[in-house]
Amino acid sequence: MTSVKEIHVDREPHDGELGRGRFYFTDDYSVFDWGRMPDQIPEKGAALCTMGAANFELLDVNHVPTHYRGVYEAGDDPAETEPRDLGECRTPPRTMAIDLARVPDLPRDGEAYDYEAYHAAAGDGYVVPLEIVFRNTVPEGSSLRRRRSPSEFGLDVEEWPDETVDLPDPIVEFSTKYEEQDRYLSWAEADAVAGQADLDRLEELALSVNAVVTMRAEQTGFTHEDGKIEVVYDDGTLKVADVVGTFDENRFSYGGQELSKEVVRQYYRRTDPDWVDAVSAAKAEAREQGVADWRGLCEESPDPLPAAVVETVSDVYTAGTNGYTDFDWFDAPSLDDVVTAVQAL
């Protein structure tokens, strides 16, 4: 199980063939890599599944390969029925059918991870152990502000302004996926981690996904700021995996207001800074000690969200999904009302 999804295996991958499985999207959430937080966000799982399915089907129309096979509506029995297209659903689904690839163990010796061992066990069908990040803007809170200067992207300023900055062209970065603490990689480092997957093709795939999601966002009044994809290598074919273009994986804004998981991140930065600082300190200490379990070094735990905040964040997911898909899946406020509520947090 991931922090927010349960993974059910129907057929294990074998003999170079992908397997079959399902994601079940829960109402759990995670920020700052903490894992499952103290609360749940009502309807979040259904919103993520619905928005993710909509994007996978958009990618299919645009000839972008993915591991998506459809969704199951509540009451569908995966053992008895085939997955359906999102447009066949009468209610928002929580279960998504997918192709499954191998995820071998990633051995670690101190601070070093053994990617040669990972790929030796992976064969010709595996999850590429990278997250491929694409950025159209540099909003408040983006890690890019800490790592790189504006001049690297053709911007005529010495320091990042406080407001969101539009990039002249989308950029792609690579970070680790299965290490205890994600880290951004140089091109050469990412090439070594990717195995048989060609880095130029990974970049091209990420830019294709970005173009499709950005176009859909513009059509529905959103601004698509950044996001990421995960990828399956299937005997030479690269397929977009996990889930894509949701308010967890990507940053969107509406009317100048962030409407994504970033709302929760910024809320914790404002209201629970002791925990946020303790997380950063624990990660730094773990790096210094060369240990994987940074959470065991963290001296603070996150406070639960107030009920009013939980309700507003739920509205971000449900109203946002309604708006992005241009269909009223959820009984949710208007996006303008959600923006007002978020600004009042």
Number of domains: 1
End-to-end C-alpha gap = 31 Å
**Would you tell me the structural class of the helices and strands?**
alpha+beta
Which shape, going by the Cα principal axes? globular
Reported CATH architecture: 2-Layer Sandwich
Succession of helices and strands: EEHEEEEHEEHEEHHEEEEHHHH
Number of strands: 14
What is the residue-mean pLDDT, rounded to a whole number?
93
Description:
- The chain has nine helices and 14 strands.
- It has helices spanning 44-61, 115-122, 144-147, 187-194, 199-219, 262-271, 273-289, 307-325, 335-343; strands at residues 5-11, 19-25, 68-72, 95-100, 108-109, 112-113, 125-127, 130-138, 165-176, 184-185, 222-234, 237-241, 251-254, 257-258.
- Strands 7, 8, 9, 10, 11, 12, 13 and 14 form an eight-stranded antiparallel beta sheet that branches.
How would the blueprint of this fold be written?
Elements: E1 5-11, E2 19-25, H1 44-61, E3 68-72, E4 95-100, E5 108-109, E6 112-113, H2 115-122, E7 125-127, E8 130-138, H3 144-147, E9 165-176, E10 184-185, H4 187-194, H5 199-219, E11 222-234, E12 237-241, E13 251-254, E14 257-258, H6 262-271, H7 273-289, H8 307-325, H9 335-343
Antiparallel strand pairs: 1-2, 2-4, 3-4, 5-6, 7-11, 8-9, 8-11, 9-10, 11-12, 11-13, 13-14
Gist?
With 345 residues, the chain is an alpha+beta fold. It has helices spanning 44-61, 115-122, 144-147, 187-194, 199-219, 262-271, 273-289, 307-325, 335-343, and strands spanning 5-11, 19-25, 68-72, 95-100, 108-109, 112-113, 125-127, 130-138, 165-176, 184-185, 222-234, 237-241, 251-254, 257-258.
